[in-house]
Structure formats: structure tokens, C-alpha cells
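Form 12-C: Joint structure prediction
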Amino acid sequence: MAMTVLYFASLREGLGVARETLDQPDGVRVAGDLLAWLRRRGGAWQQLLADGRAVRIAVDQQMVDAAAPLHATAEVAFFPPVTGG
Amino acid sequence: MTMSPGDPSSAARSLQGGNDSGEPAGNRPGNRSGDASPSVSAATTANAAITRITIAVQTDDFDLSSEVAALRAGDTSVGAVACFVGTVRDLGGAQAIAAMTLEHYPGMTERSLRSICDEAARRWPLAGVCVVHRIGELHAGDQIVLVAVTSRHRGAAFEACEFVMDYLKTRAPFWKKERGPDGERWVDARDSDDEAARRWARQAQQQQQQQ
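Section 2 - Result
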């Protein structure tokens, strides 16, 4: 029982992580809380996930905003704006 | 010419012998990331259910003629086929592109493409929608993406084809990384793409207000 957190494209490269599993940290209720929690790791995390950087969020494979609620087994993904097509 | 889901003409569509959505993406040859999970199919609406929708995310190239033939097969009610093919362009000079790698989010990619096609099928009276998007390494001149839409009339086919492409550009989780003379770089998203997608949202709003 843990959350899966995925990173894609330039975020994956910059953070050096594609995927990790986390127990939902105390006080982390919505996607924006998780983003703030990850920023506290410092270094590239603080820089690449900073407020004002274009970071898109998906919860359980649906694009959402920072206010989207999380749950203990959520699949959360962070990535830059998409550039397909 | 556009039609809302409540338009009486949408009822006529069920008389056209419309087909169920096509084969699951997972059954296509060359598909690396097929996701035919029941939750995706369950999201299909009543209107979309009579539109033949096929989604493929694959490393292999595609053939426009065969994709269109498959989409039209057995459906003589189709009077219009609109297609868009996106290709890798090479601007030369400092912007020369030797190759490009397309990354995606397996699972969410198929789900988001399906949801875009469902939305198109709710907005326009469509017989079929086909989206093929390639992933992996591509080179200048290669085909990247195909959107093909069939309908009774050209207005709906043209509009829906552009709609699917505009939404795909801003909502489907693909990322391009280009390799040129100065090394590799991730392609930046363009504001013009966001604006192209927003105008469809505005159009829907205006139609609701007019009713």
C-alpha cells in the first residue's frame, strides 16, 4: 500500500528518477502538497519543481490541478507541458 | 456546422449502422503499450459508442490508405474522410534535426487519446475516428501522427479532425526530444497550441449559451 510517483521527460532526466514508491506523507492530502513535500528534498527537486515552473500533474492517469486529492495508493505523475503530435 | 449531443440528428446516427469501437489498441501489431482496460471502455458514452474509435501508440510506421480503409470498412454511410498526418520537419542550420525521440506515459497516453476521441464523437456526428501516434526514435521526414475522421458530411469531418489534433497537442502525454548539431534538447510547448485548444472550449461555451 503505497503511492507510485512517476516523472517524465525533462523532469525525469533532471531529477534522475523515473519512478518511486512512497507512503503518503503526513499532511500530504492534495497533489500540490506532494509537490511541496518533494521540493523540500532540496537541490534539483527544489529547482525543477519550483513554484512558477510549468509542472503538469496527473493523478491516476488523469490530468489534474494542484488541488486534486490524493489517496494512499494513487499513481501520481509529474511532467513538463506535453509536446506530441 | 456543428451539432450538440441533444441535436435530433444525433438520433439518426444510430440508424446508419454505426459500429462499435474498433479493435482494442492492445491487439494492434507493433503496439508496445496497449491498454484495453475495462475502465477505459466503460468511459465511452452512448453517443461515442456508435462511433468506431481506434487508438494506436506504436514504434512502427503507419500507412494512411490502410488506416482509412479499415476505418471505412463496411460503412457506406460515410461521405467524408478528413485526415491529418504530422511529420518530422527539419529546418536545417542551427535547427537541423538529425533525429527525434518521442517519450510517452504508457497507460495514460491511450486513456487520454480515447477520451479526446470520445469528446469529438459527442460534439460531431462521426462514423469513425482513428488516431495513430508513433513513439521511439524518428528521423526527418518520418510520419509521427495520424488523425483520420469519417462522417456523413465534410463539415463535421474537417472540424473534428482539427479538434482531435488540437487536443492531442495539449493533453496527450507525449514529449519530443530533438537531436541536432548542438546536441539534444527537449522541445518546448508552444502557447499557440494552448490557444488552439482553448478556442474549442470557447466554441462549446458559446453553443451552450445560444441554446
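Section 3 - Comments
The helical segments of chain A are 9-15, 31-39, 43-48. The CA atoms of residues 3 and 15 of chain A lie 18 Å apart.
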